[in-house]
Amino acid sequence: MRVSKLFTKTRKDIPSDETSKNAQLLIRAGFIEKEMAGVYAYLPLGKKVLDKISTIVKEEMNSIEGQEIQLTALQPKDIWEVTGRWSDDVVDIWFKTKLNGGAEIGLGMSHEEPLTALLKNYISSYQDLPVFIYQVQTKFRNELRAKSGLMRGREFLMKDMYSFTRTEEEHQKLFLEAKNAYERVFKRIGLGDITFFTTADGGIFSSDFSYEFQTIAETGEDIIYLDRDKNIAINEEILSDEVLSKLGLIRENLEVKKASEVGNIFNLGTKYSKPFDLNYVTEDNQLKPVIMGCYGLGISRVMGVIAEELSDDKGLIWPEEIAPARFYLINLGNDQEIVERTNEVYKRLIDEGIEVLYDDRDVRAGEKFADADLSGIPYRVVVSKNTVVQNKVELKSRVSNETELITLDKLIESFGVKL
Amino acid sequence: MRVSKLFTKTRKDIPSDETSKNAQLLIRAGFIEKEMAGVYAYLPLGKKVLDKISTIVKEEMNSIEGQEIQLTALQPKDIWEVTGRWSDDVVDIWFKTKLNGGAEIGLGMSHEEPLTALLKNYISSYQDLPVFIYQVQTKFRNELRAKSGLMRGREFLMKDMYSFTRTEEEHQKLFLEAKNAYERVFKRIGLGDITFFTTADGGIFSSDFSYEFQTIAETGEDIIYLDRDKNIAINEEILSDEVLSKLGLIRENLEVKKASEVGNIFNLGTKYSKPFDLNYVTEDNQLKPVIMGCYGLGISRVMGVIAEELSDDKGLIWPEEIAPARFYLINLGNDQEIVERTNEVYKRLIDEGIEVLYDDRDVRAGEKFADADLSGIPYRVVVSKNTVVQNKVELKSRVSNETELITLDKLIESFGVKL
User: Is the sign of the CA dihedral A348, A353, A354, A359 positive or negative?
Assistant: First the structure.
């Protein structure tokens, strides 16, 4: 894509009411636009990042035989009354509206109820289980305070997966598969080193523990106690000598860190299957309730965490697999020779299937360099008088700031294969 | 995918209040589930079809340099008051709700206002134009009557593209590019032969004509007058001698057909740019309002039209590019030799990158055949005692019903290359 064709531009002005660092950076770079607090539109480069995170999440859910569906945002009142979660006293983040004709409906803030109800049409025998079902969908939550940019949205993109199993042992098996898939996701999107599997409170979903993936973050809303050797953590909310001993952790070995929740896993047990009578007939002809689990991952939230935590004072820094492009290509000067050579480089990279953002604008070099840094694209490639003479290009890493002169063939050889 | 692993099943029972043929078929085949009138969830096979249609639409919008974004479902009142479209007297299909804290908001039923407002941040000069911007997004419309299954949803998936141009001539140029892209979409999704570019009323968007793509459909809501030689049509709502002469059509040459609108194009002129002051500075330093166009395509609606119009008494019939799989593979009998051979065929097809739904269930042959037909997958492949002896498989086309015995190599050779 040529920057001259992209309708967005980097911006100096940001909305005065935008106080979160991730949204400020993403708005300045032209990746998102604020519609209202906690509600953001995605512009072309931001949409690419969001799509890439979604694709990675879907690939990893598919790898454990997750079956993708799409439930509805509009939710009928009756199925939520089955569990008592329609009441605003129980769930205080509903958006509610009315059908023309009168019936009250809600906007899906989660989907346990509709999916459990739906599965009654399909699950009746032990032969129908186990199964993983997931969706990537916009959720709506009427948060009173939505001041954290993409990290806490009123409208946000979430992957929610649900497991349906016959026994507690089978649940544990699927739980482990999902945990491993989550670890692969966080590694691929560039958060692997700072994201920890964390034991936490079961919350409204469960009387037992729940599990979170927590990313170390200066602006994180949680406090975790981290055992780096064991690569696990415990959420402060359940910290006690009893829990520590249960998890085999020693208080002195733990680091205290602020962290941001990027994923969670709840053992739902029969909390939803019982009220909906979602049962199955066992091999020896007994009727038993299905055991459920729930696995959330906030896709837009993760994008916010990455924007917030991996950035520096020059702007965004995207991990390679989710960057909107691999290279930010710049022609330094408008001499015919330089422009022609840059066009050649652009064409060659595109032909190799490598994504490039080509800053072909007629603006100062300093502006191009600043925009390259702000956009957070992993590698900057510059074509200048000097590089043309040497028949090379200048390559600079956004992370390390290291620069080298390299031939185009070498550049493609080093990077093309990874894609 | 193995049918034994798929959580959905074909169903005999359908909701008693479901009267539309497309939804009845899709529910019976396990592609969708009804949540309420005009609101449907997509199950794994249905989600695949929806995604494939989306992908084709996106590819064709990208081919004319459309830039993909994602606007928000939650809409603030103030930007819609600029054009007067917040009022329920003007737009009677709003879903409205309230933020915790009190402010009234709406659910996006279209996105002209937010996009025009957003572009004020980015467009100021003739150098910023022209541009095509599009999104594929869930729209919400509070329809009083939603009895046509996927063909008229209260919650539905739509591609809406907008063009921003400097002059009427430039608008005409982009309009033609979009028209051609639409024709490629309808050809690829299998509606090319029965879909016609139709002149219609400008409606609330324009005082001039608008343009529709109308697919001939028994249950269509529109009447079109079709000139097959010229490959264009006119919507009955604007039929008059004056309009016919303007379009160079002769009444006697026209066929009357019921049809269903699958796409539309409006010349918005300055209807939105003027109230929002979306202006640009010309090369000779004049301030002019931007000329806009709007290009809609109902993705879930198109899926409904295809389910309704291309089906037969045995079930669905999916065009090849949007089918949930290319082959429906069946093992006829459970002899070890047959099962092993079918497993081989399955593995080989998957290794070739061909999508297969493998009906490995231990059920009657008749049930497998009926489900293969109902699912609408283009080709059925059967492995039986007879085919094993001949070292072939039996191939049957869902459309033509023609059957042939063919070697696996030949099968892959004929089909693999198309993918």
Answer: positive
CA A368 to chain centre: 29
Domain ranges of chain A: 21-309, 325-416
| pTM of the full structure | 0.97
Contact B352, B344 (CB under 8 A): no
Alpha-carbon distances of B2 from B7, B346, B380, rounded to whole Å: 10, 9, 14
- For residue A168, the SS3 value is helix
The predicted structure's pLDDT at residue B254: 96
Q: What angle do CA B39, B40, B43 make, to 5 degrees?
A: 165
Of chain A, the percentage scoring pLDDT greater than 90 comes to 92
- Note the pLDDT of residue A206: 52
* Chain B residues inside the 8 Å CB shell of A138: 73, 138
Quick one: closest CA in B to A131, which residue?
B7
* CA–CA distances in Å: residue B297 to residues A374, B37, B135, B179, B182: 35, 21, 11, 12, 9
User: What totals of helices (H) and strands (E) does chain B contain, helices first?
Assistant: 11, 21
Q: What residues of A are in contact with residue B6 (Cβ under 8 Å)?
A: 67
| Phi/psi at A34 (5° precision) | -85, 125
Is B80 at the interface with chain A, CB within 8 A?
no
The answer on pLDDT for B419 being more than 80 is no
Is B114's Cβ below 8 Å from some Cβ in A? yes
What pLDDT digit, counting tens, does each position of B208-227 carry? 789 999 999 988 999 999 99
Please tell me the CATH code under which domain A21-309 is placed.
Answer: 3.30.930.10
Whether domain A325-416 has CATH 1.10.1060.10: no
The pLDDT value recorded for residue B219 is 86
pLDDT beneath 70, residues of chain A = 203-207, 416-419
Contacts of A67 in chain B (CB under 8 A): 6-7, 44
Is A105's Cβ below 8 Å from some Cβ in B? yes
Residue range B388-396: average pLDDT?
A: 96
